[in-house]
Specification:
Length: 183
């Protein structure tokens, strides 16, 4: 029998301060320049997405710096997902102009790591809420996925090889032993 990881007691690791930049380095390796758009947040915010690809995926990167436990991190990731999906409705007219007819089918919340199935379930709940907004740029099959840089193995290997991802990547499987403990 296995014991589940205790999110309230497991310490959270600091992901570093370059996670967003590393995400975009990975995505730029995945897509040619004409297929990827970054939305600057400096003037007016990013409207709930940091960018998108022309294949209908919106991207939002998030790495909290101050969570003391995995429970706190999971709660903050859920909060970020809520806040940014509400922004899709709040800034709908701005996003329509930015997307210029593109329909978003998938929303990827990119995080250094996540620890709870409840985050995936919550992503499904938020996707249903966003579909209910009736936004012209949201697909009827809109889905939210939680992604890490490890979901892009080819691009990650290249970024690690040239040093573009070192500071933002947690050591592989660093919590594997603490996730389940055999009796």
């Amino acid at each position: 029998m296995r014991k589940e990881m205790d999110l309230d007691r497991q310490p959270a690791m600091d992901p570093g301060d370059v996670f967003e930049q590393t995400c975009w380095n990975i995505l730029r390796r995945r897509y040619p320049p004409e297929k990827l758009a970054y939305i600057p947040a400096e003037m007016g915010g990013d409207c709930g997405i940091e960018g998108y690809s022309t294949d209908g995926i919106a991207y939002q990167c998030y790495a909290d710096r101050d969570s003391l436990t995995l429970r706190h991190r999971t709660d903050k990731q859920k909060g970020k997902l809520y806040d940014d999906t509400v922004k899709l409705k709040k800034y709908a007219s701005r996003l329509e102009g930015v997307l210029n007819g593109l329909i978003i089918e998938h929303y990827f919340l990119m995080v250094p790591e996540y620890h709870a199935a409840e985050l995936i379930s919550y992503a499904h709940e938020r996707a249903a809420a966003v579909r209910g907004y009736g936004l012209s740029f949201i697909s009827e099959s809109f889905a939210i996925h939680i992604k890490t840089l490890q979901d892009y193995p080819t691009e990650l290997r290249a970024a690690l090889a040239d040093g573009a991802a070192k500071a933002a990547i947690p050591p592989p499987f660093m919590h594997r032993r603490s996730r389940t403990v055999p009796d």
